[in-house]
Amino acid sequence: MVEELVLLWPDHTLAFWMLLAAAGYLLVVGTGLSWIDLRTHRLPNRIVFPTYAVSSVLLLAAALAGHDGGVFWRVLAGGALLWAFYFTVRFAYPAGMGFGDVKLAGVLGMYLGYLGFEYLLWGTFAAFLLGGVYGLLLVLLRRGTLSSHIPFGPFMVAGTWVALLMPT
Predict the structure, then answer these.
(1) Using an 8 Å Cβ cutoff, are 61 and 16 in contact?
(2) 142 torsion bin: left (phi>0), alpha (psi -120 to 50), beta (else)
(3) What is the mean pLDDT of residues 74-100?
(4) N or C terminus of the chain: which is more exposed, having fewer CB within 10 Å?
(5) What is the enzyme's class at the highest EC level (predicted)?
(6) Alpha carbon separation from 142 to 67, 136, 137, 138, 160 (Å, rounded)
(7) How far apart are CA 112 and CA 26, in angstroms?
């Protein structure tokens, strides 16, 4: 995302500011949701649902201001695809993932889709990798078992940031 911001700055300042605002918003909301999920194992609808509206307005405005219709459609498709993937995982094994994670996935998919579908794959992979490493550490340190429930939202947000900060 840093490289995208650098590319937008000289020619598309409005797109730059919209994308920077979207990144800042994700940082604030993602941190808050991660903290809440770590403490309560919940991702509240009163935070996640408005995040769809704010994020989509900022990301789509950045796409339109940058005069790139392809990005506009990638934002929408990224959100829908990641939501569908997490919904499928939730449907296949309901005990393994909460529906709050499914709802959050759509928002994170919009951000990843903004940069491209390969980022969608990297962000999803990074989330599951980070969550898996954390779970393994819990087992190895005898702080949990294979059936322990861990909040996955923080790993989804962290995986998204790993992908967003990857160089192109």
Answers:
(1) no
(2) left
(3) 96
(4) C
(5) hydrolase
(6) 53, 10, 8, 6, 28
(7) 11
